[in-house]
Amino acid sequence: MTARQPLFVGGSWTEPDGGHYEVIDPASEETVGWAPEASRDQVFAACAAAREAFGPWSRTPPEERAAVLGRAAGIIAGRLKEYASLARAETGATLGIARALQVGVAAARFRRYARVEPAEWAIPPQINEAGPMGKAGVMGALAVRQPVGVVTCVTSYNNPWANPAGKVAPALAMGNTVVVKPAPQDPLSVYRMARALKDAGVPPGVVNVVSGRSTGIGEAAVASPDVDMVSFTGSTAVGQRIAEVCGRDMKRQLMELGGKGAALVFDDADLASAVAGIGTTFSFYSGQICTAPTRVLAQRGIHDRLVEQLAAYARRLKVGDPREPDTVVGPVISAAHRDRVESYIELGRKEGAVVVTGGERPDPPSGFYVAPTLLAGCGNDMRVVREEIFGPVVTVVPFDDEEEGIALANDTDYGLIDYVWSGDVARAFRVARRLRAGGVGVNTVGRNMEAPFGGFKRSGVGRDVGSYALHAYSEVQAIVWPG
Asked: Per the similarity annotation, which family is this (predicted)?
């Protein structure tokens, strides 16, 4: 019998009021485990436990909090094989991705916030001609980062290790306490993270994990009066609903939402580099990533060659069992999501796009697979170009000159990460500065993990990663005194 996972509330493993539900391996359609279905009362209890723990944890010296995070990083790294195997089974990611970019990144993120950074800084003295007392004076000031309080972390299904770690680690480092509500498709990994933190010595109530398929679970975790801030990664539509609830109670928000990343490829680009970068949409989490360069804008001089090379690249990728070392493209998360992605491919056909490669369900007898699909002959008004598909599907739109390319790139509701490929570095940076996106990759899809991360427009609110995450999970307090 596969183990039945309890909730983690107030430092204790707690049986769920709503019983358990199956977690399905997207590759085999077999049962990975049984996840707990919390009740609203249990979610409120988790938030209350976090509120009770906040005072003592926020007063714990930063060095002690950092030491807990450092021990957690070591525990996660030491259990890499076990945790990566579970992550692969829950998400359908290839084993290499599960090891390096899920569990490995999670350990790195805990390690990153296990170092203490200054939480206060001096502000230059100000000479006041006159003040409330009627006398001139010199006023000194100090800015101090203070923890926000209780943070609800609502995490995404595409990376149940790195995404929660990117929220929990900086939040705890700043002295906040957390309630984590993982995605219903793959919550078991997040409970392993909670176990690692418990083993690392995190006090009861500082970290809580509650899961469930009911939308009421997430709503309760957001609406609880004990919650001061919500950190959410997911779709723009859900983010909008969360923001409405937060707005009523003036709760802080950090939102990393949808994306439809434009990849501008100019005539002078290194096509091999562009193809390899854009091709990550097909392979990296099977396109289930908001930062993917899914919307290719190709200058006409290289358009046909780029389409041809992208199609050839996609056809070479092995689709299949993510446990096999040579598999590059695993399944998408569920049958429902596979159907959604396939419906977009069919919509593209109806809109007049040309399916250059893919478009058919691949061979594996079980699992939720979508073949890497390239849609050419697209216009910027097509839904497949404008809407987030969240699968291994790339669209290609031609453009004539730099101005048109920039205009097409910015003609979107989204603005998370865009990309520019050009042999003219001056032009690449000039174009990058005109793109309405939170990040721009110049001749790369790589990330600098200290650079601020977040979106413009409907792609999010706020910035995190590196020191920016410490700002995101804190309030700034000013202390002023006469000089």
From this structure: Belongs to the aldehyde dehydrogenase family.
